[in-house]
Structures are given as C-alpha cells and as structure tokens.
Design brief:
Length: 239
C-alpha cells in the first residue's frame, strides 16, 4: 500500500485515539487485561518514542537505548507529544531510507506500515470504552492483515524453535472486498497463500473484523465454519 495513504491513515487513527482517550484515563480497556486508558496511553507513547529515536538515528544497528519512561500522570498528553514527533520524523523521511527494524524490511517504510496498524488496533481499543467506532477503510485493514501475517505471525513467531502453530489450517475470507488467505502450519513454520481454498477451519468477516480477530480482540460478526477451538487457537497467538 502507498506510504502516503498509510501516513494519512496513521494521522487519522492517532488523532481519533487521543480524542477518545481524553477524559477517560481511568476507564478499563475491554480486550487488554489489567489496562486502563492511561496504561494504553503509556504503552503507545513508549512505542512512538522508541520508533522516533530509531528513525532519527538513521542507523542499521539495533538500538541500545531503553524505551522512554512515561510520567506518573498526564500519560495522554505525553503520548500525544510522542505521536506528533513520530509523524514529523516519518513525514520528513523517504520510506526507502535504510534503518534498523525488527522485521524483514529494513527501512523507514516498515515503520510507516507498522505504526499505522499499531495505531489502528489501539484506536479500536480506545473506542471500545464507549463502544463508538469510526468507519475504517477496508483496504487499509486488509493491508493490516497482510502485515500481521507476514510480520508478527510468520516472521516474529517462528524465530523461536519452541514455538508451534495450531494443529490445523485456517482460511480467512474477507467479505467487504477482495482478500482471502490460506495458512497451513508446519511445526514452527507456516505456508501462506492468498487463494480461495478449504482449510480445517474458515473465518469470514470484514477486513477490520478479521484484523481484530487475528490480534485477539474477539470482534462480533464473524462467521466460523469448522472447529471453533481451532479458530480460537489461531485468534489467540498475537502477543
């Protein structure tokens, strides 16, 4: 997906997240155990701050500086400042600029994509406090599914020889546009194809609902065909 489109989405989702967070610092986050809104703000601020430091360093070496420490109070305002700095750093950088990342792609474009989908997910977490949700571009959410599968699911998780995927394949079917994925496990590896094919379990839904499902948010409106336990296992892998 085009970097400018992702940057526009990042700004939209971030502004929405911080707007919803205002005045709700003590409200619990439904799908994040033991987190209130202020904890979500502290988390996202730490992430934004760390990524901004990496981008500004313009280095391919793994950073040794710790994540920034959030304040005891006013976590939202602190995180909002980190968000503004992140947007500036990303906007001032060519997406192809080489830089260290924790993924396969070692460039600024990785962080544009990762921060967009990180923010989309946590915007939804914040919105869940009042159950008031803005419409999300289905193609952006679809890109988020690819980003999750290629990144967290396929790259990060299989770095551990002890990690094993669920014992059965899954077919994901997007219902609000084009998008199908067949994921077949093989020990600590997976084979992913984008095709209409039969899996041991099938999960159908809109792109945003499939994305939330993969990140363990248990959205409503999904259709599951096959073993519910297998679907739950695939939807419980995200860190």
């Amino acid at each position: 997906m085009d970097a400018n489109q992702l940057l526009g989405s990042l700004e939209l989702y971030g502004n929405r997240m911080f707007t919803v967070a205002e005045g709700n610092e003590s409200e619990p986050i439904k799908h994040c155990q033991d987190w209130a809104m202020k904890d979500l703000m502290a988390h996202i601020g730490r992430v934004y701050g760390a990524v901004t430091s990496v981008i500004k360093s313009k280095s391919l070496d793994r950073p040794t500086t710790p994540f920034p420490t959030p304040p005891e109070n006013n976590q939202r305002e602190w995180a909002l400042d980190k968000f503004s700095a992140l947007l500036e750093a990303l906007g001032d950088s060519d997406p192809s600029t080489p830089v260290w990342t924790w993924g396969r792609d070692q460039d600024v474009g990785f962080f544009i994509r990762r921060m967009t989908h990180e923010t989309l997910l946590h915007m939804r977490d914040a919105e869940s406090v009042k159950s008031e949700f803005i419409e999300v571009d289905g193609d952006v959410a679809c890109d988020g599914i690819d980003e999750y599968i290629d990144g967290a699911l396929q790259h990060s998780m299989n770095q551990s020889k002890e990690f094993l995927y669920p014992d059965g394949s899954i077919h994901l079917h997007r219902t609000d546009g084009e998008g199908e994925w067949l994921i077949k496990p093989s020990g600590n590896k997976i084979v992913v194809t984008r095709e209409h094919a039969k899996g041991d379990v099938a999960v159908r839904g809109s792109a945003i609902d499939l994305l939330l499902y993969l990140w363990g948010r248990d959205p409503q409106g999904l259709e599951i065909f096959g073993e519910p336990e297998l679907a739950q296992a695939w939807g419980s892998l995200a860190p």
